[in-house]
Design goal:
With 239 residues, the chain is α/β, with parallel strands linked by helices. The protein has a single domain, classed as Rossmann fold (3-Layer(aba) Sandwich), CATH 3.40.50. It contains ten helices and ten strands. Strands 3-2-6-7-1-10 form a six-stranded parallel β-sheet, sandwiched between helices. It has a two-stranded parallel ribbon with strand order 4-5. The longest helix has 18 residues. The chain is globular. The protein starts with 16 loop residues before the first strand and ends with a strand.
Length: 239
């Protein structure tokens, strides 16, 4: 069964989409991928992380004893080989990467399969979005009144991934998709973004009729809006 921990810990309920927020341990996405893939000998998983530097540093510092002991051995090595990790550095790169994923018949053209890592032999069983807030928080903190990000900037990344899942594994109405989605974002509760763009972030001129509204767009907490996209939410508490 899927789990955010090694084998001896409780498992998660079956889900089609899962949001994990709070101070989760760095290897939680890996444990979810490995435990999910253990259910099938042919399925694959995609992890899309905002930063290879931050992810690799967090994994080294955490130094998961269970993974250190078992990785590279037996069944776990075979399962690990079916996990692909990509590091799109910006939201635009992530959207582009999502647009390139497609499934081809492995028996049809071996050259096509070898030409790109975004060419898939079958729909992945799991897609993980990792730390989407990292795309936005630095700009928001350094330029609180002039950054170009809005609530839709974040929600669009989730929606684009959900659209990819529908494209890769179309289902009949009312049925469960074969690909499930998980979003791990430890800082999503810090995210507050404007509904509209700050006028100073682009070339548009402030409204003469409503100058105060133009200078100070309304901001919204992102987490409650994102949760609407997900069947389950898991919250890690540091207390």
């Amino acid at each position: 069964m899927p789990s955010l921990f090694p084998n001896e810990y409780p498992s998660l309920p079956q889900f089609s989409s899962l949001l994990v927020k709070g101070s989760h341990h760095p290897t939680a996405p890996l444990h979810l991928a490995l435990s999910h893939l253990a259910l099938s000998s042919e399925s694959t998983a995609l992890i899309l992380s905002s930063s290879s530097i931050h992810l690799n540093l967090a994994l080294r510092q955490y130094n998961d004893d269970w993974l250190a002991t078992h990785s590279g051995h037996g069944d776990l090595a075979a399962v690990s080989s079916r996990v692909q990790i990509f590091y799109p550095p910006t939201p635009a790169h992530l959207v582009f990467l999502l647009s390139t994923f497609h499934v081809v018949d492995s028996s049809a053209n071996s050259d096509d399969l070898a030409s790109s890592k975004s060419v898939l032999a079958c729909p992945p069983a799991l897609i993980v979005l990792h730390e989407l807030s990292s795309y936005f928080l630095r700009d928001v903190q350094e330029h609180p009144t002039s950054h170009s990000w809005t609530v839709s900037s974040y929600l669009n990344l989730v929606a684009q991934t959900a659209s990819l899942i529908s494209f890769l594994s179309p289902t009949k109405a009312g049925s469960t998709p074969s690909t499930v989605l998980a979003l791990f974002d430890s800082r999503i509760d810090e995210m507050k973004l404007p509904v509209l763009r700050h006028p100073s972030s682009g070339n548009e001129r402030p409204s003469i009729a409503a100058p105060d509204l133009a200078r100070s767009p309304r901001v919204e907490e992102v987490a409650p809006l994102v949760q609407n996209y997900f069947q389950w939410t898991a919250v890690f508490s540091s207390g």
